[in-house]
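Supplementary Methods, section 5.1.

A reviewer requested that the exact input to the structure prediction be made available. We therefore reproduce it here, unchanged from the version used in the analyses.
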Amino acid sequence: MKKFLFNYVIPYFLYVLVFLWCKTLRRKNLNIEQEEKINNFREPYILTLWHGRIFYLFYYLRNRPDYFLLISPSTDGDLLAKLARLMGYSVIRGSSFKKAVPAARSLIRILRKGHSIIIIADGSRGPRCVAQSGSVELAGITKVPLFPMTFGAKRKVILNTWDRFILPLPFTCCSINFGSSINVSSRSSKELVEEKRIELEDSLKQLDLISDQV
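The structure derived from this sequence is encoded token-by-token as follows.
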């Protein structure tokens, strides 16, 4: 019964809930030029965002089977994977926390096949708003650009979770913001990877600051 609920009932319920919820939201694009540049980019790339800023972007970027999401092979991951497919994404199963090397290899294969991926910058367990080096290292290995993105909401609820998850209240305005590309050399030293990691972290925090003030 539990498997039936997780595979056939809850994902469809969440899909309808998220879709109807987000349909009530108004949208303001803060950097249309950069967003158009990303949409017109003909090579693979990596989009990255904070874990707490997933909700509206998950809806906003829907119906993009060329975007691959890494989702853990857990029971909860089964639910999220089903929901992601309903939203029109492609899914690759793996964990960035456990068995990180096989997951990284899978993402490298996806990028080298010409597809793009979406990665959570602070991972599935945090610390909150501290960029991990994984996306930077992937960008260097595959020679693809890394684009930070975020959203802000005029009226919102911030959940008491490790990531301070943001839920925009119905009928409020959400601001979408994309940052400039971060390019990483394929032969980067540990020092350069750390420099680019800090650049990514700073870029995401700056995007948050701008988006939250609108």
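Residues 69 and 91 are 5 Å apart (CA to CA). These observations are discussed further in the main text.
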